[in-house]
Automatic annotation (TrEMBL):
Domain ABC transporter residues, every copy: 2-228
Assembly, per entry: Homodimer. Forms a membrane-associated complex with FtsX.
Compartments reported by the entry: Cell membrane
CC annotations in GO: plasma membrane
GO biological process: cell division
Superkingdom: Bacteria
Annotated organism of origin: Oceanobacillus polygoni
Family: Belongs to the ABC transporter superfamily.
Protein's UniProt name: Cell division ATP-binding protein FtsE
Record function comment: Part of the ABC transporter FtsEX involved in cellular division.
One Pfam match: ABC_tran
GO MF annotation terms: ATP binding; ATP hydrolysis activity; transmembrane transporter activity
Underlying gene: ftsE
Length: 228
């Protein structure tokens, strides 16, 4: 499903963020990416949705070799991959409904189908009654739910989340994790970078630990393994 072969990434400033990474993730898996700050977790994640390109090595997602897709085809790849960020990245002047619909509108869906899909997905994240609100009128947890709704509205096969609970309090974080588990239970692959020891050690999943740009541990039902 997701195959990384011998991946190296050196940024323009000469920093090598990934130093020979090999990974194979099956459809439907839930994988935590852990490791110290600066280890290469975000870089690893950005390569998967082609926010960054590897310096060397190949990444295959489904039937697609990312090194072979042209820039204009990247939006099609993004249809198969939903992305959730620590800081939500919602459009502040758009309502909850519009923030989610926007993800569909860019790929030219009909208005009727947009409405149906947006309302369905807002129901999944428990925010149907907030469709008309602006992001600024919502709590942090609610804003993150909107960003999850936006990530899943196209029914992607993969949802990638970079520290999705990083800005949320513990109670809210557990609610967000429950939503991710529900999405995963429907067959969606979840890949989540996190610094939360509590979450990783409580909701047991596959753990891939990255340190200094290499994978140092890859365990099913693994532990967080760091003190903070
Ligand atoms: N756009 C960039 N240009 C240059 N160097 C970068 C860039 N992005 C990341 N780096 C560097 O690459 C290394 C890995 O960074 P990355 O963001 O992947 O780490 P991380 O494990 O996600 O860290 P954190 O847990 O702090 O978010 C770091 O040394 C970082 O400074």
């Amino acid at each position: 499903m997701i195959l990384m072969k011998d991946i190296y990434k050196t940024y323009g400033n000469g920093v090598t963020a990934l130093n020979g990474v090999n990974v194979d993730i099956e459809q439907g898996e839930f994988v935590y990416i852990v490791g110290p700050s600066g280890a290469g977790k975000s870089t690893f994640i950005k390569l998967m949705y082609r926010e960054e390109k590897p310096t060397k090595g190949s990444i295959i997602i489904g039937d697609t070799d990312l090194s072979e897709i042209k820039e204009r085809k990247v939006p099609y790849l993004r249809r198969d991959i939903g992305v959730v960020f620590q800081d939500f990245k919602l459009l502040p002047k758009m309502s909850v409904y519009e923030n989610v619909a926007f993800a569909l509108e860019v790929i030219e869906e009909s208005p009727k189908s947009i409405r149906k899909q947006v309302m369905e997905v807002l129901e999944v994240v428990g925010l149907k009654n907030k469709a008309r609100s602006l992001p600024s009128e919502l709590s942090g947890g609610e804003q993150q739910r909107v960003s999850i709704a936006r990530a899943i509205v196209n029914h992607p096969k993969i949802v990638i989340a970079d520290e999705p609970t990083g800005n949320l309090d513990p109670d809210t974080s557990w609610g967000i994790m429950k939503t991710f588990e529900e999405i995963n239970a429907r067959g969606t692959t979840i890949i989540m970078a996190t610094h939360s020891k509590e979450i990783v050690n409580t909701i047991k999943k596959r753990v891939i630990a990255i340190e200094g740009g290499i994978i140092v541990r890859d365990e099913q039902r693994g532990e967080y393994g760091y003190e903070i």
